[in-house]
Amino acid sequence: MTRSIALVGMPGSGKSTVGKVLARRLGLPFTDSDHVLEQRMGCPIRTYFEQQGEERFRDLEQAVIAELSMSKGVLATGGGAVLREANRQQLHAHAYVIYLRSSPDQVFQRVRNDRKRPLLQVDDPLARLKALHAQRDPLYRETAHFTVETGRPSLQTLVNMIVMQLELSGEAGVMT
After folding, report:
1. Which DSSP string corresponds to 9-78?
2. Quick one: how far is CA 64 from the chain centroid?
3. pTM, whole model, 2 decimals?
4. Which end of the chain is more exposed for a tag (fewer CB within 10 A), N or C?
5. What pLDDT digit, counting tens, does each position of 74-121 carry?
6. Cα separation of 27 and 70, whole Å?
7. How far apart are CA 16 and CA 34, in angstroms?
8. How many CA atoms lie within 13 A of 6 on its CB side?
9. Which of 14, 163, 160, 4 is nearest to 101 (CA)?
10. At what angle do helices 33-41 and 54-68 cross, to 10 degrees?
11. Is the dihedral of CA 34, 133, 88, 75 positive or negative?
């Protein structure tokens, strides 16, 4: 493994779930940038968003992404990490980036009852997901080295697809 593996995608696309299984499979450490941010902020992201605003949150997120992308392992990024050009460049240059692509409808089915996601606490979360997807999909594609559609495959199949892609790309040099 020559560099870290970073997972990008919409909130609820499975970055943390896939990341944990992938890390276990590859014998690498797993890190979730949102968990690191919450530890450093001392509060949930939703609370920080409400008190400090999105811009201050994105500043902290940028610093954490820069730090974590330099470590060997599997990194699950926050859904909005690609909004900043600096994050997109950092991730693309220092990690093998995989876009877990999910449709807004698929994401809605997964997160419709999750009250921890600040950007989805609106009257019409599906419409919000569609707008976020329209805005972010091109940014995820720009950042990623590879895209995996998350709609149909099982978790194990997704991980197998990612491992095969890592092997094909030469990123899996030290994997057994």
Report:
1. -STTSSHHHHHHHHHHHHT--EEEHHHHHHHHHTS-HHHHHHHH-HHHHHHHHHHHHHHHTTSSSEEEPP
2. 13
3. 0.92
4. C
5. 999 999 999 999 999 999 999 999 999 999 998 888 877 776 766 667
6. 17
7. 10
8. 31
9. 14
10. 120
11. positive
